[in-house]
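Subject: complex prediction, re-run

Hi both,

The earlier run crashed halfway through, so I resubmitted it with identical inputs.
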Amino acid sequence: MQLKQISIAAIASAMLVLAPVTAYSQNTTVPQGVRLGLNYTLGTKPGVLVLPLDSIGGDSVRAILQRDIDYDDRATIVTLDDSTVRGMIPKTGDAYNYPLFAKLGVVAILRPERSLTGINITMYDVAAKKRVQIGGFPLLDKVNSPAWRLSVHRASDEVERWIFGTSGAAATRVLYSGGDKQIWVIDSDGENATKLTSVTLAMSPAWNPDGTRFVFCGFTPDGSQIAGYSFVTGDLHWLSGTARGLNITPAYAPDGRTIAYASGREGGTDILVMQEGDASPSRRITVGKGSDNTSPSFSPDGRQIAFMSGRAGHPEVYTMDADGTNPSLLTEFTYGEQAYRASPDWAPDGRRIAYESRIDGSFQIMTIDMRDRSTKQYTSDGQNEDPSWAPDSRHMVFSSTRTGPRQLWVLDAESGRMRQLTHAPGARLAAWSPILKP
Amino acid sequence: MVTDSQTLTFEPMHPRHTILAVVALALAAGCHKPPVALGPAPMSGAADSLNSARADSIARANAARQAELARAQAEQDSLRAVRDREQREAAQNADAMKVLAATIYYDFDRADLTEAARSLLLAKVPVLQAKPNIRIRITGHTDDRGASEYNLALGLRRAAEAKAFLVNNGIDASRLTITSMGAEQPAVQGDNEEAWSRNRRSEFEPISGGANQ
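This time it finished cleanly. Structure:
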């Protein structure tokens, strides 16, 4: 975590080095133990201070808010030790010592308070020296249950919208294939890892656009089939419309009904589409002529599909229209080079496609810009594979062996900052959910 | 006794005298009676009979036993012959199934058959021809390098290449099904070429008709 810790002890220690200090203006109320005039640099990200909440689950609410804002990577959480920060809260009204907060690098103060149904959060603009936002957020279920935590994440996302104009992506979850080769789900902050399937072997989960269902590839003795799971009913079922054999890498179209997937036959593996709930045979949309075509990913408008294909002799990322016409190589083709580019995932804002590329024998996470085809490499340590975009089109989850056993990691594509999401070995093939509604 | 001074002379008898002598001898012979028995003369005959019967019985029993032994021996020989034949056939069947189940291996990122793979596949052909009811599932596998989803497709292509070779050598395509496990079921754990080379493979599993065909 990149939390800026300002403890009284640390400040006192710094005082010994940074003397003499400049006294702050006379009309500033200085809490005991805080020495003003200390130059405190937060960097380019604005500082946000979350005040304590004195109620059941209060610490969790504050901790979740702080962590979500930190993981969002657009603000820096300013933390003061508890007694200090409590001394800075006015007994009544909104008469905060704004200059003091400004001196500490705080741009926004968030004050959560208990309400009848959950929490109210008030945001104070330190520069404007006034309250600028207040919102009520119901908290579902009992404290620290998955539903309760998701409620707090929603509050975090809304606060991010207050500050930056666009919502955060905290109220999301990540599906993945665990080391036991079953489908698991985990909150975007790494909490509540939960196993969802018990089949022979399950992989390649993919969310539907409203986050209520997902599809995945499940194995049977006769091959693999596309299966569906509903979070609403807990129902797990095999999808009709797929033939026997190898059926893998399903992906929902933005319409929430069309599913593209790869189906293998003796003549190669091609991408097919079917309508969920419709038993009609699937329709083939690639003509691989013996090559392998897998891993479809729809553009946000549903008009195009990115996929990987070995039609050029080695795996590359291609795009085509959603009906299979106009296939074209997306990634750069270098003659004589046995490149290996795979697992494309189209960003929700449509601007970039993430993929993995073999570089010097190891797979690394890359993106390609859809406007100018410029590429960017994000990783260099270990094997890094299976990128999946968060709904903010800024963060990606991917699998990596950078610290040993394969785990899921989250990458901020803007800053390059990474954090480990899972802590059980073997996690891979992640899929980041859309924003989850109550 | 006859001395040297005496001369034995035989005078022919008168025929009437001869007849009389013969008659006398005959009478004498006809009047001879056997001695009176002291024990149970009739019982002595039964014992002989019993002994004889016992001996006969023993002989018969011996003969029966011999016959039974011979029959059992013959049966045993027959069973042994059957068993030997079955063991021979089982061994032959096991050898045949071993040939049928022999795993073939591939080069990295390739699905085309190596010479070694072709030899192993060719050896399967007569076995499949001799066992027309047997059906085989061919499962392609890969090592764990590369995209795991794409590896599923690569594994299928490997299985398809093996199937095509068998079909081209006269095996009915309907007897062969293909599937892929990609890198999901490694034969060997490891992060080196030795492990990878043993994981790039196609496996052959009888799914029907494999027991006594």
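The two ends of chain A are 28 Å apart (CA to CA).

- K.
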